[in-house]
Amino acid sequence: MKKSVEYYLGLPYSVELRREPDEGWFVHVREWPGCMSQADTAEEALANIQEVIPLWLEGALESNYEIPEPRGADEYSGRFMVRVPRSLHRSLAELAEREAVSLNSLVNLALAALVGQERQEAPQARAVLRPDFAGAATRLAPARPAKTRKLDAVNEEKPVYNTAPTGKYAPLQMHLIGMSHSEGRAQLSFAEIERIIGDKLPSSAHNHRAWWSNHADSHVQARAWLEAGWEVDSVDQGAQTVCFRRK
């Protein structure tokens, strides 16, 4: 049976929040490639990702993308093989002998110290949260005016793909490809798009501007217009129209 958005929302996925120099806060779901957002404050970044997650899941399910599930602790055996230069192996063995510990214990202590150092270097700049992360941002950063780069219909990133998308929104791509090159803009109503694709648009297309983002990594439908050489310029959800422009 096909799993639902609600099923995936109930999983213990990891939301990683980190501060980027001069770029505010970046947040993404570690298990789901392209499910991400960014804002000037940690609070707004977390609010944004809560909007993005159901949209990303909806698009992934529509395109039959195999959504990765979180890996449990029991999937890690506590054993792994590492190849090192002979000279390093020798140095480690000699150090272990001087410290009167086993080589295994020495390497364990060194790795634990390295992980601990990374966490201590910037304790306020990075965090991995679980689905119940609401309010966590207040513990990560001091309050400041929220000048947030909110999710919008237009995203400046223009991904390039080597293969054309298939599926529900492929007819929209073909429609845009077939438009005259003399036309630099194209306005379509939501009803026209539904006639083109032969199906209803999801409710998020009517209610969330983020659904029309030009970010195809987190919005599968965006591949249809981006691959056709177009991008969303503006959306009027009151009038139920979207304006595309040539890239």
Describe this structure in words.
This protein has a 4-stranded antiparallel β-sheet, with helices on one face. A 3-stranded antiparallel β-sheet has the order 5-7-6. Among the domains are: 73-121, Arc Repressor Mutant (Orthogonal Bundle), CATH 1.10.1220; 158-247, no CATH class. The protein contains 8 helices and 7 strands. With 247 residues, the protein is α+β, with helices and mostly antiparallel strands. Helix 3 (86-99) packs across helix 4. Helix content is 35%, strand content 15%.
Mean pLDDT: 75
Q: Please give the largest β-sheet.
A: 4 strands, antiparallel
What is the alpha-carbon Rg in Å?
A: 23 Å
Q: What is the succession of H and E elements?
A: HEEEHHHEHEHHHEE
Give the CA-based shape. elongated
Structural class: alpha+beta
- C-alpha end-to-end distance: 40 Å
| Count of beta strands | 7
Helical segment tally? 8
Helix content: 25-40%
Low-confidence stretches: 118-126, 132-166
- Beta content comes to 15-25%
Strand order of the largest sheet: 3-2-1-4
Short description:
By secondary structure, the protein is of the alpha+beta class. Helices cover 35% and strands 15% of the residues.
Question: Which tags fit this structure?
Answer:
247 residues; alpha+beta; Arc Repressor Mutant; 4-stranded antiparallel β-sheet; 3-stranded antiparallel β-sheet; 8 helices
Chain-wise SSE layout:
Layout: H1 5-9, E1 15-20, E2 24-29, E3 36-39, H2 42-62, H3 86-99, H4 103-121, E4 126-129, H5 170-177, E5 185-189, H6 190-197, H7 203-207, H8 222-227, E6 230-236, E7 241-246
Helix pairs in contact: 3-4
